[in-house]
Amino acid sequence: MTDFEIIELIQQNKTSKAIKALYSYFKVIKKYILANSGTKQDAEDVFQEALLLTLEKIKNPSFNLTASLNTFLFSVSKNMWLEVLKTKKHTHEFKPKNNFVLNDENELQKANDKKLETAETAFLKLGKQCKDLLVNFYYKQLSMQEIARLMGFSTEAVAKNQKYRCLEKAKGFYLQLTQKHSHE
After folding, report:
1. Residue 25 sits in which domain range?
2. Final residue of a structural domain among 73, 100, 118
3. Are 81 and 33 in contact (CB under 8 A)?
4. 27 and 90 assigned to the same domain
5. How far is Cα 181 from Cα 30, in angstroms, rounded to an integer?
6. Are residues 60 and 93 in the same domain?
């Protein structure tokens, strides 16, 4: 099922099929959380929260997906997990997370919105070729071979290298913007 089909199902309140499709992303999120001081239960809790937030976002008429749903859901999950780790670090407590509770969901949602807004701003700073390449890969989910042909790259390897450079540029812009915001 494509991202567009999943979004359409969610916007039509046919969420059970969409949720089933989104669960295919759980493995990657679980792997990330396990690799970063988490447990299987932590991964399940964070994924559930991220899934709910993602569904809420998609139902919002102004929702505009600027990456793949997989990337979006992973980013939300990662940010939530980093918040959990930060809380643990500050309180020096390591509680079982089967009671995963957000102190202020609106605050976390605003923080996630700000991060997504910053990522979108970083993306918009890219040149047209980079934007087109990344949209073709992440949003339209074209293969590198299709992208090379469509965008006039001589080989698939050249397209991959260009994608890497574009991502590095976007990361650089993102870091500049986050550092700028943290000094304000």
Report:
1. 1-118
2. 118
3. yes
4. yes
5. 30
6. yes
SS3 content of the chain, % helix, strand, coil (to 5): 80, 0, 20
| CA gap 69, 54 in Å, rounded | 9
The count of other CB atoms within 10 Å of the CB of residue 134 is 21
E strand segments, 18-149: none
Q: What is the pLDDT along the chain (184 residues), one digit of tens a residue?
A: 888 888 888 888 888 888 888 888 888 889 988 988 889 998 899 988 988 888 888 888 777 888 788 888 888 899 999 888 887 765 544 444 444 444 444 555 666 667 777 888 888 888 999 989 988 887 788 899 999 999 999 999 999 999 989 989 988 988 888 887 666 5
Q: What is the pTM of this model?
A: 0.49
Q: Are residues 52 and 112 located together in one domain of the fold?
A: yes
